[in-house]
Amino acid sequence: MAKLQPVLDADGVNALLQRAFPGANQARTTIITEVGPGRLHMVGPYREGLLRPGGVISGPTLMSIADSAAYALVLAHIGDQLMAVTSQLNISFLRGAQPGDIHAEAELLRLGRRLAVCDVRIWTEGPDRLAAQANVTYALPG
């Protein structure tokens, strides 16, 4: 398998997403902090509206972060091809995500001509206390 090399760095992906989704980025819903070969780190800043009853971050919020991290990772490696779309997202909730910034570490498992497959690990307390793990597949424009 060829070594995966990103074509955009963290600033490039942030700028691309801001141009593509100007309204969403005004709220600074996510920030890509690091991009490397086949990987990406994203942070979703904490705010009170993310909590569900019981005082933990809601499942839909974690699914959104997983999907956003996978999308950003794919764009980092294929460039300005915004029509990549989610074709599958499978998530396992491992423990309640405590209030705090939401971190997502995404890894590109396969980048083909038509599909990109990503693994996303999500936490608030630390990478050794995962709150969720997702497998996300993107259909690539072709």
Description:
By secondary structure, the protein is α+β, with helices and mostly antiparallel strands. The chain contains 3 helices and 6 strands, in the order H-H-E-E-H-E-E-E-E. Strands 1-2-4-5-6-3 form a 6-stranded antiparallel sheet. The chain is globular and about 45 Å long. The two termini are 21 Å apart.
Widest beta sheet: strand line-up? 1-2-4-5-6-3
Radius of gyration: 14 Å
Q: Largest sheet, described in full?
A: 6 strands, antiparallel
Strand proportion, as a percent range, falls in 25-35%
Rounded mean pLDDT is 94
Oligomer: single chain
pLDDT under 50 segments (min length 5)? none
Helix content range: 25-40%
Structural class: alpha+beta
Number of strands: 6
Shape: globular
Tally of individual helices: 3
Helix-strand string = HHEEHEEEE
Cα distance, first to last residue?
21 Å
